[in-house]
Amino acid sequence: MSADERRESVIRAAIAEFARGGYSATSTAVIAQRVGVSQPYLFRLFPNKEAMFLAAAERCLQETRQVFVDAADGLDGEEALHAMARAYQQLIADDPEKLLMQMQVYAAVAAAEAAGDHEFGEAVRAGWLELFDSVRLALGADESDTTTFLAYGMLANTLISLGFPAGHRIWSGFYDSAQPVL
Question: DSSP code of 165?
Answer without folding.
Answer: P
